[in-house]
Design a protein that fits this description.
The protein is mainly alpha-helical and 99 residues long. It is built from 3 helices and 2 strands; from the N terminus they run ααββα. A hairpin with a 2-residue loop joins strand 1 and strand 2.
Length: 99
Amino acid sequence: MSFEYFLILGFFFLVALALKAKFKIKVFKSTREALVYFSIILVLGAIWDNFAIWRGHWSYPGTGITGIFIGLAPLEDYFFAVVCSFYAIVLYKTLQKKS
C-alpha cells in the first residue's frame, strides 16, 4: 500500500489531538509561536534527513510511501518531523498535567 506511512503518521496525529482535547492542553501560546516552532522543525529535519540519505545512513525502498520526493527525502518524512514533535510535546504536557 503506497499510503501506509501516511496512515501511521495520521494515527499518531489523531492520538495527539485526542489527548490535547481530552486534557485541555494548550501546546502553543499563539499561532505565530506554532508557526515558528514547526518552521524550525521542518528546516532542521529537512537538512538532517537529506544529509543522512545522501550519506547512505538510511533509504526509502519505495513500498509504503507515495513516491513524492522533496530533495532526497519522501514527502512523508517531512510530515514525520512535524507529527512526531507535536506528539512528543502533547504527550509530555499530558503526563505533566496528570502528575
